[in-house]
Amino acid sequence: MGLFAKKKAPGVAEPMDLDAVMKKYDRESNVRIWEGIPKIIVTSVLAVFSLFCIYVTLFTSWLEEIRLTSFVAFIIFIGYLVFPAKKGHQKVNHMPWYDVVLMVGGTGAFLYYTVNALTIIQQGSIFEWYQIVIGIVGILSLAEVCRRSVGIPILIVAGVLIVYALIWGLSNPTFSGKLNYTVRYLFYSKEGIMSTPINVCSKFIVVFIIFGAFLERTGIADFFINIANAFVGGFSGGPAKVAVVASAMEGMVSGSSVANTVGSGSVTIPLMKKTGYKPEFAAAAEASASTGGQIMPPIMGAAAFLMADYVGVPYSNIVVRAILPAVLYFAGIFITVHLEAKKEGLRGLSKEELPKIKPLLKQIYLLLPLILLVYLVGTSQRSIQYAAAIAIIVAIVVSLFNKGNRITPKRIWEALAAGGQGMITVAAACGVAGIIAGTITMTGLANMLINGIVALAGNQVIIALILTMLCCIVLGMGVPTTANYCIMAATCAPILVRMGVPTLAAHFFVFYFGIVADLTPPVALAAYAGAAIAQGNPMKTAFTATKLAIGAFIVPYVFALNPAMLFIDTNAIEIVQICITSLVGIFGVSAALEGYLLKPMSWYQRFLGLAGGLLLIYPGLTTDLLGLGLVGMVAIIQILERKK
To answer: Most buried residue, 72, 361, 430, 474, by CB count within 10 Å?
Structure first.
């Protein structure tokens, strides 16, 4: 068991140890084992780090170089305290000597920058040899923390780009000159590690991670599952619909696909199997819904904060524009789950198994922190950091009314420590993403890539969109959502903008396709985690999850080709039109893929439904009318055949 292992749902028969699932598919769960006094010390360090982040974010006006380098120094220090060099059995209260050396060396490198920030800023481009060595130590130590907490694929991308820069990408004639310039650019400037990703992480993301840690301790996750059970659990295929609704609600406060899958899946997947769903479908339904949590406002994972900074719009603006695509995504999964239940003749839960609504409504106060956060962010009455800080205080207050989940002083300390631990992975990914983006900019590779794809696509926006989608999915198979978005925002998003896609729509496009990599074979971590709980075939689960999440592959094309879905240059009538046509379109596609509407569909009905659905999703009056005609035709044929 790690420092802060997730609690298992009480009274749920689990086919597999949830901690084992998390350790296998979620690198954040592979942590050192501290017990006794060492655990108290490590917990205190993590909690102090959270308090440090809150203090610096809310109450100081430090020089950016000082704020960012001290933040990364802390991340490296706690990164080595928490994450061992490799997976597997860990000795209790053990940290090898080489980890201590790496921890001290990496922390010292960034603290050197912190202490000498003014001198370094003023010295221009002339650096001493020892400063270059310090920079190399800092870069390598951060990379090692990233390897331990995030994984090696992102480091392969960064390593290949750095090698390219040192051998071909820079014009300096000597290797030492290239090395000197690379280290200065990536370590000492604001274009590498200290660029936008780590800046946004230290300024905004950290406070929301801490808020999530506190909100989790109020018992809101159990409330979401119970309220979903009460409202949709009794319908046909109820448990699967519960998974969709509960994951959509949990996604409002959590941005981790694997954690969402394991958290709510420990309850919903056994229930789905009990009511007749196949293990692979049950796991896929939970995984696809849980992955969608990253696109559900208001939290939307860390990448949403980065998008606000890259695009240059308020975070509240991003949240509002994300609502309709998120609703369509979950609607697509809900429709497919419903059709599968009807096709297999599955029933819902019995009345005895359903939670009573009245007692649940008495717990509605648990939503107060979330509602307050949305209100403060939406009305811009407070900065994002202050809004999250106020929401944390409110979460503590509302917990006092929930006897089983009261946040005592001890649990406040644990929540702060959990928040500190949760920052490591995001910050390490942001730091390495800054290295990748900085190397691409430093070598001019971004312009070369942009010009190449624009030339390849010609004047066809759809070709540029398909190429960008493939880049995002392939990169996302090994790179976390946050880092994936940073890289795509620096490379592919400008391509779409040049092709005429509005800036915000272009960034939403790469954001979405970076997320679906958690479902897309061969590296579909959320699907594999769900399969482990359901004891199903992992690859079959991944393909089923991809089918269920078809909306995530369609919706981005809709708002890229018709930005009205993101409320860009539109009016109320157009928004209503695109909502109706997109929902009917997703319904047509889902029915065609499922092979069932009112009864099993023949091959030609599936073809007509798929064609009509895709035509409805593609913007334009002509395509809308044709699509409605085809989907309507299939529905009429099904009604007539059913009557016979």
So the answer is: 72
